[in-house]
Design goal:
This protein has 96 residues and is α+β, with helices and mostly antiparallel strands. The chain contains 3 helices and 4 strands. It has a single domain, classed as Ribosomal protein L28/L24 (Ribosomal Protein L24e, Chain: T, Roll), CATH 2.30.170. Strands 1-2 form a two-stranded antiparallel ribbon. It has a two-stranded antiparallel sheet with strand order 3-4. It is elongated and about 65 Å long. The mean pLDDT is 93.
Length: 96
């Protein structure tokens, strides 16, 4: 899974370079994807994911990886992230 964020699903976009003479050549807009280890408090371990910096900022804002995964739609998550979401939901204590 190259150049795709495992949490937000953000991938490569395409467009045009437009010169002053209005010549158009194709180009790629690449997401800022970083290979990073995120801590899951529910599982008590670190998980390595390819995450874009935008999703990393949102993950911090939500209050951690577990909270981000709980709110995320399954359609935007990678297979690895969906499995992690299920593991976190299973290991989480039941609400009283």
């Amino acid at each position: 899974m190259a150049r795709r964020c495992e949490l937000s699903g953000k991938g490569v976009l395409t467009g045009n370079n437009v010169s002053h003479a209005h010549n158009k050549t194709r180009r790629r807009f690449l997401p800022n994807v970083q290979d990073i280890a995120l801590h899951s408090e529910t599982l008590g371990r670190y998980v390595r994911l390819k995450v874009c910096v935008n999703a990393l900022h949102k993950e911090e804002k939500k209050g951690g990886l577990d909270a981000y995964l709980a709110d995320a739609k399954d359609s935007q998550l990678s297979l690895k992230a969906r499995r992690l979401k299920r593991a976190v939901a299973k290991a989480a204590p039941a609400p009283a």
